[in-house]
Structure formats: C-alpha cells, structure tokens
Write a structure and sequence with these properties.
Elements lengths: L4 H5 L5 H19 L2 H13 L5 H41 L15 H35 L4 H41 L4 E5 L17 E3 L15 E5 L8
Antiparallel strand pairs: 1-2, 1-3
Helix pairs in contact: 2-4, 2-6, 3-6, 4-5, 4-6, 5-6
Bound molecules: zinc ion.
Zinc ion binds next to loops.
C-alpha cells in the first residue's frame, strides 16, 4: 500500500503544500533584496552624521519580512497539523485497527497546535533576527573599509540570500514537524503501541534516515521525526499481531 512512486518520493503527500510555503517565504527575501540599495544609502548617511541605523534596519526587516512571514508560519502550521490529523486517522484505519464507531480523525488538541505554531514562529524569527544582525555587521565592515554604497548594497544582498536559503529549509522541516506531530497524536488517541519509520526514497533520499527505514519503535520511544533539516520521513502506525485465542 505504500509502494506507489508518489508515496515513495513523498510519504507525507505534502510536497505541493511544502513548496507553496517555501516559495512564499523565499519571495519575501527576494523582494527585500530590492531594498538593499536604499538600506545601504540610509545606513551610510546615518554613520556619516554620527548616528545609528540599527533601529531603522530592524524596523524595515520586521515590516517587510518578519511580520508577513509570521502570519504565513501560523497558517502553515495550522494547515500541516490539520493534514497530519486527517492522514494520521487514515493510516490508523489502514493499519487495521479495530475500533467501534467511526474511525475518522479524533478532535485535534488546540494546545498542541498552539505549541507547534509557536515553534514555527520561533524558527522563523530566529532566521530574520540573525539576518538583521548579519546585515548590520556587513554594513559596518563595508563602511570601515571605505567601500562604496554599491558594494555595501551587494554585501547586504549576499546576507539576504543566505537567509532566503535557510528559510526554505525551515519551511520544509517545520511543515513536516507539524504534520508528524498531528499524525502521532492520532496514533496515541487510537492507542497505537508501535510506529514504523518510513523514509522518502528518491533521488534526494533522506540519507541520515535510510538506516531507520522499516524499523519499529514503541510509540513513546522513537527518534524525532523529522530527524534532520529537510527530512521528509513519516511514521506509520503498527499493531503487533495478536495470537488467535484457542
Ligand atoms: Zn528523513
């Protein structure tokens, strides 16, 4: 049942929804790069007049990147959590767990969702705070070297590019974290005792995860999933076969 090509590449079936989030976050940095010349000029003016540009820089980063991204991070966590909730229940059903009544998703836990959103926002803010610090350092260093505004702006764009790449990794990883947390929550609600690791197998296989593929763990004692940045693995519910009664 997990042998189709699509499932092998992307066990969570979240690929398109991860990509939409990645491209939104990436776009924030691409647009922000357009401000590099202006930031360089304003910072130079401030430094020439013996002032500081730090607060202004933090405000611009906040308005253009951090705030719109924070909203997207909250929405993405919610979407991935919901998808994991629905798929988690489907996987329980597919594992043949017998439960009377309906076997749809059990109600999600708002506290778990809130914690996932917080963690996604914290990861995001870490990226933009770090970017603001690196931009500030590169402006100061460029100014000390007596470089032209042209070069200062170029250094700023380089720093933005570094953060843009981090944001793509973050978007993939956090989407999977929300999805997996929600699926595991469903397993627990249906009293699933064991889970099995399922690795994404394609040209970009999770290399760190290959040794884990197919391994089974007690639900309370398995490696974190995602295991590493950009991990696309998922956990499957496992029910040990019970010997038939005589
Ligand atoms: Zn993995």
């Amino acid at each position: 049942m997990f042998r189709s090509r699509e499932l092998a590449r992307d066990p969570s079936l979240m690929s398109s929804r991860r990509k939409a989030y990645e491209s939104f976050m990436s776009g924030l940095f691409r647009r922000f790069k357009g401000s590099a010349g202006q930031i360089a000029q304003e910072a130079r003016n401030a430094l020439t007049n013996g002032g500081t540009f730090s607060d202004q820089l933090v405000r611009v980063v906040d308005q253009q990147v951090t705030q719109p991204g924070t909203q997207a991070a909250m929405n993405q966590a919610q979407m991935a959590y919901k998808a994991g909730t629905i798929r988690g229940a489907d996987l329980v059903k597919a594992a043949g767990i017998k439960i009377t009544g309906s076997l749809g998703p059990l109600p999600p836990n708002p506290a778990v969702l809130a914690a996932i959103q917080e963690s996604n926002i914290a990861a995001w803010e870490g990226i933009t705070d770090d970017m603001a610090k690196r931009i500030k350092a590169s402006i100061i260093s460029s100014s000390l070297k007596g470089e032209s505004i042209y070069y200062t702006a170029r250094h700023i764009r380089e720093q933005v590019e570094i953060s843009r790449k981090y944001s793509i990794t973050m978007a993939r990883t956090e989407t999977m974290r929300a999805y997996n947390a929600a699926a595991e929550e469903q397993f627990r609600k249906y009293n699933v005792p064991m889970v099995e690791w399922l690795t994404a197998y394609d040209e970009r296989t999770c290399e760190k995860c290959i040794p884990l593929n197919g391994k089974q763990y007690p639900i309370d004692d398995h490696p974190d999933c995602p295991l590493h940045a950009r991990c696309r693995c998922i956990l499957l519910p496992v029910v040990p076969e019970v010997p038939e009664e005589k």
